[in-house]
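Q&A log
Question type: sequence-to-structure
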Amino acid sequence: NNIVRDCTSASTDLNESLIGVMWASDTLIQGNRLRNLNAETYGYGIRLDDKTPGITIDSNSIKGVLVGIGTDSSATSRERMAITNNVVESAAQSIHLGGGTPGSGNEPNGVVIANNRVKNAGSTLSTIYVGAEVTGPLITGNQAIGGVDGINILAPNAIIAGNVLRSTNGFRAQAAVTTYIHDNYFVGTTALL
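Response status: OK
Response body:
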């Protein structure tokens, strides 16, 4: 239950964050209010680096950041990750699991992104982006507003159900094999890609 706000850095490190986690297992980040990092020009509300299995990010309020909740682009251990019940308003991606290299063994399994309310003020990036670093993510019950896509998925074997996507281009699956899409609602969208 921390309040972190109005942080400005003289550097332009894109990896800065209001909360950062790396090399930690079974971590709970819950009930924080995170506001205004670097005038939304760079940085994360919550950033995960390297191995963070068993992490739960729940019931946080994040506003005034470039990226709301995100991972480094090379991470491969997201086993048992849960991103749930957060409210995120970001200039770019609200949730970004960005690795392109699949994990091995159990590393990429058990990812849940559920019941988040996310808003992307930008028009060139997805509001929720899940890269190929995970396998079989469950993405359900989210409300996504803005961005070029409400949900952009590269992860194989994804289950995407019960989401509401507003004022976006809808949903995009890129090289995602065996993706199950069911009972999503598209309001004011222009395409299902």
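Response note: DSSP finds no helices and 22 strands in the chain.
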